[in-house]
Amino acid sequence: MQSIIDKLKDNMQLLYRRALDADQTLARLQQQGQGKFQQIFPDDAGFQVQSKRFGPYVEELAKDIVALEAQSDSPSFEQQLAMVVKKMEQLFSTLSGLKDSVKK
């Protein structure tokens, strides 16, 4: 189980750095009058937080990973792991999409 948690933490570091860059990009776009949206992810995406920036989503995911690590012996570990992985995939995908769309 610890190797899974370690991989999640490694991915979190990568997500954190990408989120910082993406938030700077979003701030620039909004200063230019673009990027007019209320939140990054829809209500049914699995996140509790609603934000125009990636930072709060990454912070929520980091808290989820800490909670998951504390529950490594719990019967609900696999269910919680699936939720964490889903959020992580959504963040990676959305960050990648933003990066690609800004390049064009």
* Alpha carbon gyration radius: 15 Å
Count of discrete domains: 1
Largest sheet: none
Beta-strand fraction estimate = under 5%
As residue ranges, the low-confidence spans are none
In DSSP terms, counting alpha (H) and pi (I) runs of 4 or more, how many helices?
A: 3
Q: What sequence of helices (H) and strands (E) makes up the elements?
A: HHH
Entry keywords:
104 residues; mainly alpha; 3 helices; elongated; Prephenate dehydrogenase
Brief characterization of the structure:
The chain is mainly α and 104 residues long. It has helices spanning 2-31, 55-70, 77-103.
Please, could you describe this protein's structure?
The protein is an all-alpha fold. It has three helices and no strands. Helix 1 packs antiparallel against helix 2 and helix 1 packs parallel to helix 3. The longest helix has 30 residues. The termini are far apart. This is Prephenate dehydrogenase.
Secondary-structure topology with pairs:
Blueprint: H1 2-31, H2 55-70, H3 77-103
